[in-house]
Design a protein that fits this description.
Helix content is 18%, strand content 25%. By secondary structure, it is of the alpha+beta class.
Length: 384
C-alpha cells in the first residue's frame, strides 16, 4: 500500500511495509510538520495585486500550515483580494492576520461556501470546514459566549444584548453605532443636556431656559404679553424713551414724532411725510372719491362769480411757528359758502374751522365760466 496524505495536516501516512529502513526519517518529518501546525509564520502570500491560492504542501514544510499566519504582500493591494487555502478537503483552525499593504481587507476562502473577511491590520480565527468544492470558512468567534467573567484589555466584560447593565465612565461611539428605543424615562433629570445638541443646534441653553419660565401655552402667553405691551389710554414708548403711540379706548389712535413722520416703500424711498409744522407731502397724487355713483342731488353752482367776489384772499402769519403764508379765513368763507368749511376738535384749541381747499375748484370753475360769459357779452357790445 502506497503512502497517502489525506489527513488535515497533510502528513505522510506510510503504507504497510513501506519505507523499510527510512521510516524514522519520515516519522521525524511528520513530527516537525505537526510542530509547524502549531507555529507562528509570516509570508508574503500576495506576491502581486491579485487573488491568490495557497496550497498546503504534502509532507513538506509550508507556512500556510501554521496555526497563526501573518499574511503580507509584496506591494500595495488596490482592492479587497481573496486568499484561497487549498486543498478544499482540509479541515483546520487557523488565525490569519491581515498585514498587507494598501489598507485593504482580504477574504479567506476554501470553496464556494461563505468566506471570512479580515480587515487590514486585524486578525481573525478562521475555521476551514474542508467540505470540498462547497467548503465554508467560518469566523470562529462569531457566536462565542465569553461568559460573565471574561475581560477585554483587563476590564470586566460579560454583557449580553438583552442584559441590563450600568455602564460607568464608558464611551459609546454613536457616530458609527445606532442607539435605539431610548425614551424620556431613560434620561436622568440631572443629565443637563446642552440645548445645542437638540434639533439643528440653533437654540442655545440660555434661550432654552426662557421656555422654563412659561406657566402655560407659549403662544397664549406671547399673545397676552403682546396685548399687555399695547395698552389702551397709555403711551407706548420706543427704546429711546420717546412716546410714540397712544390707543384711546374705543376711539383715537395717536402717533407722536420729533421731527418727521413718514412712510417709506421697501426700496427705502419716502412716499409720505409730515413735519412738525403739519406740512404733509406726498410724492404722488392725493386723490379723493368723486365718482357719480357716490353722489345725488347734483346741481350747478349759481352766481359763482358773485360768491368768489365776496371772498378774501389774504396774507397771514401762522401763530404756531410764525410762518408767512397766503390763503383764506375759513370763518369768512363759511358765511358765503358754508359747504367749503368744516370743523375739527383740536386738543389744545378746541373746535377750529377747517377749509376744504380742494373743493373750491368747483366754485372757481363756475366763476371762470361766469366771467367768460361777461367777457363775451362785452365783446359783442363792442363789435356792435
Amino acid at each position: 500500500m502506497a503512502s497517502s496524505y489525506e489527513n488535515d495536516l497533510r502528513l505522510e501516512e506510510m503504507g504497510t511495509g513501506e519505507q523499510i529502513g527510512s521510516w524514522g526519517t519520515t516519522t521525524n518529518t511528520n513530527l516537525s510538520l505537526i510542530a509547524e501546525a502549531f507555529s507562528y509564520q509570516t509570508e508574503a502570500t500576495f506576491s502581486s495585486d491579485a487573488d491568490v491560492t495557497a496550497t498546503i504542501a504534502d509532507g513538506a514544510s509550508d507556512k500556510a500550515r501554521a496555526f497563526y499566519l501573518k499574511v503580507t504582500s509584496s506591494g500595495s493591494l488596490s482592492a479587497t483580494r481573496t486568499l484561497t487555502i487549498a486543498p478544499n478537503t482540509l479541515s483546520k483552525v487557523i488565525f490569519i492576520e491581515n498585514a498587507t499593504s494598501g489598507s485593504q481587507s482580504i477574504n479567506i476562502s476554501q470553496g464556494s461556501g461563505a468566506n471570512v473577511t479580515v480587515g487590514n491590520g486585524l486578525t481573525k480565527a478562521c475555521i476551514l470546514d474542508g467540505g470540498g468544492s462547497g467548503a465554508v470558512v467560518y469566523d470562529m468567534f462569531d457566536k462565542i459566549d465569553l461568559g460573565a467573567n471574561a475581560k477585554i484589555n483587563g476590564g470586566s466584560f460579560g454583557i449580553t444584548a438583552s442584559e441590563t447593565v450600568a455602564l460607568t465612565n464608558k464611551t459609546i461611539d454613536s457616530d458609527s453605532n445606532t442607539i435605539t428605543n431610548i425614551v424620556n424615562a431613560d434620561i436622568k433629570a440631572a443629565a443637563a443636556i446642552d440645548a445645542t445638541k437638540i434639533a439643528d443646534g440653533s437654540v442655545t441653553s440660555t434661550e432654552f431656559q426662557y421656555i422654563n419660565t412659561l406657566s402655560s401655552n407659549a403662544q397664549t402667553q406671547i399673545s397676552a404679553k403682546l396685548n399687555a405691551a399695547l395698552p389702551n389710554d397709555a403711551w407706548i414708548s420706543s427704546a429711546d424713551g420717546r412716546q410714540r403711540l397712544y390707543f384711546t379706548t374705543n376711539a383715537n389712535t395717536v402717533m407722536q414724532f420729533d421731527s418727521q413722520w413718514r412712510v417709506d416703500n421697501n426700496s427705502g424711498s419716502t412716499m409720505l411725510s409730515c413735519d412738525t409744522g403739519g406740512n404733509f407731502v406726498a410724492t404722488g397724487n392725493v386723490s379723493a372719491y368723486s365718482d357719480l355713483a357716490l353722489k345725488e342731488d347734483i346741481y350747478q353752482i349759481e352766481n359763482a362769480l358773485e360768491k368768489v367776489k365776496k371772498l378774501r384772499g389774504v396774507h397771514f402769519t401762522r401763530k404756531s411757528d410764525n410762518t408767512k403764508e397766503i390763503g383764506v379765513v375759513a370763518n369768512e368763507v363759511e358765511k358765503v359758502i358754508p359747504e367749503l368749511v368744516d370743523e375739527h376738535q383740536d386738543k389744545d384749541l378746541g373746535v377750529v374751522k377747517t377749509m376744504k381747499y380742494a373743493n373750491t375748484v368747483g366754485l372757481l370753475i363756475e366763476a371762470v365760466k361766469d366771467l367768460s360769459n361777461q367777457v363775451e357779452e362785452l365783446k359783442n357790445v363792442s363789435s356792435d
